[in-house]
Each structure stands twice: as structure tokens, then as C-alpha cells.
Amino acid sequence: AKELYINACDVNVSEACLNLGFMYGSGQLAGGFEKAVDYYKKACGLGNAKGCASLAILYENGQGVEVSLEEAVNYYDKACDGNDGGSCAHLGLMYENSENYVDAAIYYQRACDAGEAKECSTLGMFYYTGQGVEQNEEKALKFFKKACEMGEESGCKNAEIVKKQIEINEKEMEKIETL
């Protein structure tokens, strides 16, 4: 399998390069993370989002390369650009942990768009509380419902809470208008 993957990677088949990276990184082939880095770089350069994400992980953890959060973020961003929802989600979490809620919301949005249910729910909470975005209960409800439809239980629970809150707010507005 190694030789076939090498031949395919040599003619720019990104999946073959990615598979070689996995094989080296998992210890199936001698050469370890250092060789995995080479193949992930090639896969990423060929537009393979999983290759970029795998490379980001190595930079984040210092496996086969020196730890570099800057490089990790760059490769996660490339993977996110390639519609790798997990990389978008991870960037959202990294930004949230550094209290950069505006960028966190951007990456949670991208993760949600890529099908990451948990991040749809997180984005709903951002809209509900106004963290990193303008507070908007309707948008919060939209993202909680989307998360729920994708099977995220917290999205379902939060959608019900926000829906009830919107109904209460509407009733309060009606009382004010009749005064």
C-alpha cells in the first residue's frame, strides 16, 4: 500500500498524500511525525482540507514540528476554508478561549454552516447573550432550532426556552401598547 500511495502522491493525488501522512503519524510506517508533516503539507497544498487540519494538529501539539499556534491557526483556517467543519469549530473555540468573541462567532457560524450541530447551538447562545454579535433572540432561536434539527439536544432545550421568552416579551409589548 505504501508504494501505491507514494506513486499516487507523486502525481498529486491529495488523498494518497493524506493517507501516507496518517500512516506515518500513526506509526504504521517508520519515520513518524516528521514524515507525516511532509505528506500533510503536500496534501494541504493540493487543497485537501483534512491534510490542512492534520497539519494544524501537529503544529498545535508540537508533533514532528515545533509548537506554533500561529501555524496551527493558519492551517486550521485553510481547512475551514475547505469546509472542514471541525477545524472551523476548533478555531471558534480557540478564539472564544482567548476572549475574542467576534472571531469566535465568525468561526462558529462557519462550523454551523458546515454541519456542526454543537456550534449551531453555541452560536445561538452567542446571539441570545449578545456575545461577539448583536443580541438577537430571533437569530438565537433560528440557530437553536437548526442545532436541534441536526440532533443536538441542547439546541432543542434552548430553542424551547427562547421561544417561551419571545412569547413573554411579545405579551409584555402588547400590554405596553394598550396603555
Structure description:
The protein is mainly alpha-helical and 179 residues long. 78% of the residues lie in helices and 0% in strands. Helix 1 (2-10) crosses helix 2 (14-25), helix 4 runs antiparallel to helix 5 (69-81) and helix 5 (69-81) packs across helix 6 (85-97). The longest helix is centred in the last third of the chain and has 26 residues, at 153-178. The protein starts with a helix and ends with a helix. The relative contact order is 0.07.
Please outline the major beta sheet: none
Instruction: Name the shape in a single word.
Output: elongated
Instruction: Give the termini distance in whole angstroms.
Output: 78 Å
**Contiguous uncertain segments of 5+ residues:** none
Beta strand %: under 5%
> What level of helicity do the residues show?
over 70%
Series of secondary-structure elements, N-terminal to C-terminal: HHHHHHHHHH
The overall pLDDT average reads 95
Total number of strands = 0
Q: List the total number of helices.
A: 10
Radius of gyration: 21 Å
Structural class by sheet pairing and helices: mainly alpha
Give the assembly state of these chains: single chain
What's the arrangement of secondary structure elements?
Blueprint: H1 2-10, H2 14-25, H3 32-45, H4 49-61, H5 69-81, H6 85-97, H7 101-113, H8 117-129, H9 137-149, H10 153-178
Helix pairs in contact: 1-2, 2-3, 3-4, 4-5, 5-6, 6-7, 7-8, 8-9, 8-10, 9-10
